[in-house]
Amino acid sequence: MELDAKQKLREFLTKALENHRDHKGFADSESLFVSGRLDSFSMMTLVMYLEEAFGLDFSDFEFDVNLVDSVNEIEALVDSKLTA
């Protein structure tokens, strides 16, 4: 994932957290969904964002929350799907 795309992803996640009145920062390795900071609605909007921004099709593989639980995991997912 390019640096600009990663920054846009972090901005998207920051806004999602702010929508939940969560204004704390987060590390790239920090859990966002399993930890409860973001909910299932946030996950749906994230999936739609990733489909639009990176051309991913989540119907092509078995979804697991751990695939998108942190910035690092999202980056690994995007990179693996774009190189496949």
TrEMBL record:
<dbReference type="InterPro" id="IPR036736">
    <property type="entry name" value="ACP-like_sf"/>
</dbReference>
<dbReference type="Pfam" id="PF00550">
    <property type="entry name" value="PP-binding"/>
</dbReference>
<protein>
    <submittedName>
        <fullName>Acyl carrier protein</fullName>
    </submittedName>
</protein>
<feature type="domain" description="Carrier">
    <location>
        <begin position="3"/>
        <end position="82"/>
    </location>
</feature>
<dbReference type="InterPro" id="IPR009081">
    <property type="entry name" value="PP-bd_ACP"/>
</dbReference>
